[in-house]
């Protein structure tokens, strides 16, 4: 009886180790290769020469592009440190044709921004519906982006607070 138990334990251990090795090999093979600095620079040069890259460069040099870049630069130190930014809600909807999910228009330090919150659950949306135009809010973000389609920098909202109460907090998905 003891011999059967030990034999089955040894077999089970062998199967687990074999299974683990095959999973490890699959994971190692599916990990994307990171590009070197030279490869990154070459890919950027190739994109800049493409029609999309040329159009983006032209937009960056235009007055509208410069205005968006200046607005993004104005809040860069807050975004990098994930610090609180004081904002005022100026509109409860995004500009027409926006494809950023749910969002608001806000004024931070006398500049207009798109505050993008992405796709929301019903509970998150219900909390945000309490916001009104001219409400003073606290915003935290880790990312600000720019796109030629929009006349404003896009702040990806991670955290919103109104009257010292959390109205929205982005839940981290995936990762370690």
Unreliable segments of 5+ consecutive residues: none
Morphology: globular
Q: Percent of residues in helical segments?
A: 40-55%
Q: What proportion strand? A: 25-35%
Helices and strands, in order, run as: HHHHEEEHEEE
Classification by helices and strands:
alpha+beta
Query: What does the largest sheet look like?
Result: 5 strands, mixed, barrel
User: How are the strands of the largest sheet arranged?
Assistant: 1-2-3-5-4
Write down how many β-strands occur, each being a DSSP E stretch of 2 or more residues: 6
* Count of helical regions: 5
Radius of gyration: 24 Å
- Overall mean pLDDT stands at 82
What is the terminal-to-terminal distance? 44 Å
Structure description:
The protein is α+β, with helices and mostly antiparallel strands and 176 residues long. 45% of the residues lie in helices and 26% in strands. The protein is built from 5 helices and 6 strands, in the order ααααβββαβββ. A 5-stranded mixed β-barrel has the order 1-2-3-5-4. Helix 3 packs across helix 4. The longest helix is centred in the N-terminal third of the chain and has 29 residues, at 2-30. It is globular. It starts with a helix and ends in a 7-residue tail after the last strand.
């Amino acid at each position: 009886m003891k011999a059967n138990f030990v034999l089955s334990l040894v077999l089970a251990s062998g199967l687990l180790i074999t299974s683990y090795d095959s999973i490890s090999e699959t994971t190692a093979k599916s990990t994307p290769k990171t590009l070197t600095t030279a490869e990154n620079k070459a890919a950027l040069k190739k994109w800049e020469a493409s029609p999309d890259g040329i159009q983006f460069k032209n937009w960056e040099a235009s007055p509208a592009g410069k205005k968006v870049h200046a607005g993004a630069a104005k809040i860069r130190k807050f975004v990098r440190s994930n610090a609180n930014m004081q904002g005022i809600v100026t509109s409860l909807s995004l500009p027409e044709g926006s494809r950023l999910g749910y969002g608001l228009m806000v004024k931070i330090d006398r500049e207009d921004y798109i505050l993008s919150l992405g796709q929301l659950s019903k509970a998150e949306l219900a909390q945000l519906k309490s916001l009104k135009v001219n409400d003073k809010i606290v915003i935290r973000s880790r990312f600000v982006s720019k796109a030629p389609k929009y006349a404003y920098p896009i702040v990806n909202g991670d955290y919103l607070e109104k009257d010292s109460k959390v109205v929205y907090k982005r839940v981290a998905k995936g990762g370690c």
